[in-house]
Write a structure and sequence with these properties.
The complex is a heterodimer of chains A (464) and B (404). Chain A is of the alpha/beta class. Chain A has 16 helices and 16 strands. Helix content of chain A is 34%, strand content 13%. Chain B has five helices and 21 strands. The longest helix of chain B has 11 residues, at 2-12. The chains are: A alpha/beta (464), B mainly beta (404). The interface between A and B is large, with 44 and 54 residues.
């Protein structure tokens, strides 16, 4: 009997035991109309990651996340993305195509195996990658995400850009179009724009050795400010609201901060003496020219020797336009590690300038980024748009780190959770951080309540 | 035979419990449960060994055996801040229990053994829930064995004390940020000792007072098993099998109660429990291998709490006694360090109880406790994880006492 009582008691209570209800969040659109959302920008907007454009990267772009979050505040219909129909994807390295990077084990010239980014499919042929990149998906459009990897702000205004950049060519509705012509086809009511990174980054990734920084002033299609204005005005033909993000400092990006300036570690005094003897003549010549540069090696970590074509040696002495790198100058992630370890780069052989950002190049980039960001802030204000301060977020990530939903974001390569294996583009988790930063700015500007994403739901760099 | 069956069932059931402020569980007598979990100033026979060993000296019969259990059906609901993401726990029913046996040696002395489960916690979140990097599931169990002796100083004053031997077991699992299926699982058990001492004062036929102190018992786990499920690439820095040390305090309680026999049939009881949660400052994990990387100190910063309780008992007739009670149990947690591993909110509870006394010697005690954890916004700042929490627990219980 006792047991029966217990059983009946528990059973009846179980039925009655209800889940407590919490209903604290009612999404609201505030003063914005999210019914048709469109996003424009460069590789970051396209969902480029791990050095390539691939399907799940596109699905995990911050803009795809925003589109999903906007559904609860009135966004309608499909959010069309020009998907690459491959998980290995396709990216460019100079003139060659390759699949995305994954973390794998690679053997270096010394025979040491270590964890490093390796191609997802090293056997993919140039031809099949070219087909993947070259196949037009325009028939599936019009697309709501028109982010184009590699695009500068000026490119978005360039008619016929499809023929110059296959990442646009593959989804351009008309080969004669400029990217912004896609906007009128979709007629968005709300837009996001994150553009301008490549206007400095292309120069920076080339180590300042090729390409050029887009000037702030100049006509639409040439200058940053007028181009931005033209793009915003194109959106405003149909959109009543939008958000525009600024440009992060490149010194917060692991592509420029991972390789140290002084990786030449010498443990043998004989080698030190030999190197110093080798550069004695250089030092003598510099003294003779009245130039301040000297090359000296000592036991321990030494700054690498780099090429610097800006050194004013007299005619006939161009080969002496080399020097040791300063501590505040940056070495690019693209520097061949094997050349450093086994090819005497940085000690006997000067490192080519394309792998280095010198102080001059760095300060040119920094002052440009700050000028761009001023233009972007002004444009947001003039056009009454939400300003998304990505620069501040990445800066905070680089200096103190950012904790969100149990994830620690830093600017560290691979382990910092924000940046993917290419050192420039974001991981899905990094995209979630970007999406939440957009949502914060939009909620504030438009008095809306768009639900945020949970960054812990997304992946950081996947390790083997 | 029935008794045997109940005992078997009891032992077969797990004995985890959940949220009665922090991870304390006070379901140590179904009579007490019916009366708002008061008991410090009550003569509870063998059950007094937990609530106030001083009152054991006053036991009315020569021998008293009591045993019982409760079934905790608990629910936690969560909504993440600024988000439509919600989560619920899927907690299996936990069943704290008690077994008491006590007898009088002579007019002055009484002795007994109490076995009970005063601390426990169990929360099972979905593995992929929003806070998986903080906790996926946790189960904390403790069983206390307490040999007790009580002495009646005068007809009005009794004192008593027990030595507590506590065994405990903790298991917890949390996700790691190396992909959806990476996690660390920590499992350890330990034992320690403490004491329980009380003073009972029968001021008059109607009025009695009780004062009780149960010492802190720190569960120090040494060499617990840590299992890391992580990618092989990080296997060198995070070994799959490791050992860990951690210490979890089970705080001291200082209880003061008063009871009043208002009429021949109506007994009213009130008390204050002062729970010294302030001892729970941090949860520290130390690992045997790769300690520099893996060790962590996690701030908890609990504060001491006062729990006011009130209860009443009405003897309807020889067969039936009814009980009712309630209490308010404020959360000991810190605003900034509220983690989903122990969702302890400000609790408001009401209780009901019924005793059936088919014979003079036998009593069957039924109880029902319902706890509402008041909705509140909480954040664990070190991980920047916060949301709105709300809890409920529904706890039926049954016990039997046999006295002769």
């Amino acid at each position: 009997m006792k047991l029966r009582i217990l059983f009946v008691l528990v059973a009846s209570v179980s039925l009655w035991a209800c889940q407590p209800e919490i209903n604290e969040f009612e999404p609201t659109k505030g003063n914005a109309d999210f019914s048709v959302y469109m996003s424009a920008g460069n590789s970051l907007t396209a969902g480029f990651s791990d050095g390539a454009l691939f399907r799940s990267g596109q699905e995990n772009s911050y803009t795809a996340m925003l589109a999903k979050q906007f559904e609860s505040v009135g966004r309608q219909g499909a959010f069309k993305i020009p998907f690459i129909n491959s998980e290995d994807g396709v990216g460019t390295q100079g003139q060659t195509l390759r699949t995305k990077f994954v973390m794998g084990f690679a053997q270096d010239c010394l025979g040491n195996t270590s964890l490093a980014p390796v191609p997802a499919n090293p056997n993919a042929t140039q031809q099949e990658l070219a087909v993947l990149l070259g196949t037009s998906v325009a028939a599936e459009g019009p697309f709501h995400n028109i982010g184009v990897p590699g695009a500068k702000i000026t490119h978005l205004l360039a008619p016929g850009y499809a023929s110059l950049n296959p990442f646009y060519g593959r989804f351009a509705s008309n080969p004669a179009n400029a990217v912004i012509n896609e906007i009128g086809i979709v007629q968005p009511t709300f837009f996001t724009l994150w553009i301008g990174n490549n206007d400095v980054l292309s120069y920076a990734i080339a180590g300042g050795a090729a390409d050029a920084i887009t000037p702030v002033e100049g006509d639409p299609g040439f200058g940053f400010a007028a181009s931005l204005e033209a793009i915003i005005m194109t959106f405003k033909a149909s959109a009543t609201g939008g958000a525009i993000a600024n440009i992060p400092d490149i010194t917060d990006i692991p592509y420029f901060t991972t390789v140290p300036y002084n990786p030449i570690v010498l443990q043998d005094q004989a080698l030190v003496d030999q190197l110093n003897a080798g550069y004695a003549q250089y030092n003598g010549a510099m003294e003779q020219f009245g130039l301040p540069y000297r090359i000296n090696f000592s036991l321990g970590a030494n700054p690498m020797v780099i090429q610097d074509p800006t050194i004013q040696t007299p005619p006939g002495y161009e080969m002496l336009r080399i020097r040791q790198i300063e501590a505040d100058e940056l070495v690019l992630l693209s520097i061949p590690q094997d050349s450093l370890k086994c090819g005497f780069w940085g000690s006997q052989k000067p490192v080519p300038g394309q792998f280095i950002l010198t102080s001059d190049e760095k300060s040119a980039i920094e002052s440009t980024v700050s000028a761009y960001n001023q233009v972007i802030a002004n444009a947001a204000q003039n056009h009454d748009l939400a300003l998304v301060d990505m620069n501040k977020v990445l800066n905070q990530g680089a200096s103190t780190g950012i904790k969100m939903d149990g994830v620690l974001f830093t600017a560290d390569f691979v382990t910092g959770n924000a940046f993917s294996t290419d050192g420039v583009h974001l991981t899905p988790q990094g995209n979630a951080l970007a999406a939440n930063t957009f949502i914060d700015a939009i909620n504030k500007k438009y008095n809306a309540r768009i639900p945020k994403v949970n960054v812990a739901d997304y992946e950081a760099v996947r390790l083997p | 035979m029935r008794k045997q069956f109940i005992l078997t069932t009891l032992l077969a059931m797990s004995f985890i419990a959940l949220h009665a402020g922090g991870y304390q569980v006070r379901l140590q007598s179904n009579r007490s449960t019916g009366m708002g979990l008061t008991g410090t100033a009550l003569q509870m026979g063998a059950s007094s060994m937990f609530y106030n060993p001083g009152a054991l000296a006053m036991m009315q019969t020569k021998t008293d055996f009591s045993l019982g259990a409760s079934g905790i059906i608990s629910r936690i609901s969560f909504q993440k801040f600024e988000s439509d993401i919600t989560a619920e726990t899927d907690n299996s029913m936990s069943t704290p229990f008690y077994v008491y046996g006590a007898g009088k040696i002579n007019e002055k002395w009484a002795v007994g053994l109490a076995i009970y489960t005063p601390y426990g916690s169990s929360s099972t979140w979905e593995d992929s829930w929003a806070g998986r990097l903080l906790i996926q599931n946790i189960a904390l169990q403790a069983i206390f064995f307490q040999p007790t002796v009580a002495y009646k100083i005068t007809d009005k004053i009794g004192i008593g004390a027990g030595l507590v031997y506590a065994t405990g077991k903790v298991e917890l699992q949390k996700g790691l940020n190396y992909g959806a299926d990476s996690y660390v699982n920590l499992e350890g058990s330990t034992s320690n000792i403490g004491f329980n001492a009380g003073l009972y004062f029968q001021a008059s036929d109607e009025l009695s007072f009780g004062l009780n102190y149960r010492s802190e018992v720190v569960m120090e786990i040494s060499g617990g098993d840590a299992t890391f499920n992580v990618p092989t690439a990080v296997g060198a820095s995070i070994p799959a099998s490791n050992k860990f040390d951690a210490a979890l305090p089970m705080p001291a309680n200082l209880d003061f109660g008063v009871s009043y026999q208002a009429t021949a049939k109506l007994l009213v009881s009130a008390e204050i429990n002062y729970v010294l949660w302030g001892t729970y400052k941090e949860l520290e994990f130390k690992f045997e291998q790769q300690g520099e990387l893996l060790n962590s100190v996690n701030t908890r910063d609990y504060k001491n709490t006062f729990i006011p309780r009130i209860g009443a008992e009405y003897v309807f007739n020889d067969m039936l006694t009814f009980r009712v009670g309630g209490y308010y149990d404020p959360s000991p947690t810190n605003e900034k360090y509220f983690t989903p591993e122990t969702v302890s909110l400000d609790n408001v509870a009401f209780t009901l109880g019924l005793s059936i006394t088919p014979t003079e010697n036998l009593s069957i005690d039924l109880s029902y406790l319902q706890i509402s954890g008041l909705q509140a916004d909480k954040t664990y700042e070190p991980e920047q994880f916060g949301g709105t929490y709300k809890t409920a627990a529904y706890i039926p219980g049954i016990g039997v006492s046999y006295r002769f």
